[in-house]
Amino acid sequence: MNMVWNYEEATLVNGFDNHDFLDQVISKLCLVNELDDSLLLVASCDGSVRIWKDYATKGRQRLVTGFSSIQGHNRGAPGLNAVVDWQQQSGYLYACGESSSIMVWDLEKEQVVKSASSETECSVTALSASQVHGGKVAAGFADGSVRLYDVRTPEWLVCATRPHQRAEKVVGLSFQPGLDPAKIVSASQAGDIKFLDVRRTKETYLTINAHRGSLTAMGVHRHAPIIASGSGRQLIKVFNLEGEQLGIIKYQTSFMAQKIGPVSSLTFHPYQVLLAAGAAGSLVSLYSHHKDEDK
């Protein structure tokens, strides 16, 4: 179910079912046209995508379109583990499952503009579309490798590298804040965060050993020089782009004497210094840079 909240007042604004396949969990939420008459894009792990209008008005939500982002796969079928990301500048939705193909959708036309090989048999575990340079998308894989692609170039694959020493899956991937299209941050399940410059693919220029294994999520602010990582040990750490730890959030036992589960997702507000953290048990916490404003 999709739940829309007013975080300033901690009130539920709207709630509605996304589709009839109750066993298919939501894997990605994106705002399309986030600054003006925004739409809510909801992607599920089976590759199905649905886009909603008026999602923040109680009982007035309207389905604009829905489709399967992975061709040749039936919606509701198990075992796909689809990964998607939205790129506002180009209007592209990037999607891939456990196959070796990456689908590029033009959402306005609702057409596939490119279906290309990921250049590896390993499954994609993380996708990040550049919000500054249209057509560029980075993918992280189950073996710890990272690849950069560009829809606009004939060769498609720009570079490939294996930044992480251990062959564990990439759980978080993002372009760094700023206009440089070559700098990427990659987080491995093993616990390390690597800073890459794809113009120098043989080495990383910064490593943060954030967690001793069980790194489960990473978020990078779109404009501010800060990143956050979460672990299965109910812990969130915040760093700057020089690798300095700025803060740590430890989940404590709640007033109902139930421990908060492992961190499952992290995302920053694109224009404010606010961090949202999702955890097991359908719990969402919101943090600001001022301690007295934490929610």
TrEMBL record:
A cellular component term, taken from the record's GO annotations: TORC1 complex
Pfam families: WD40 (PF00400)
SUPFAM superfamilies: WD40 repeat-like
Gene Ontology process terms (BP): cellular response to amino acid stimulus; cellular response to starvation; positive regulation of cell growth; regulation of autophagy; TOR signaling
Molecular function in Gene Ontology: protein-macromolecule adaptor activity
Record-linked InterPro entries: Raptor (IPR004083), WD40/YVTN_repeat-like_dom_sf (IPR015943), WD40_repeat_dom_sf (IPR036322), WD40_rpt (IPR001680)
PANTHER family with a match to the protein in the record: REGULATORY-ASSOCIATED PROTEIN OF MTOR
Full protein name: Uncharacterized protein
Organism (species): Thlaspi arvense
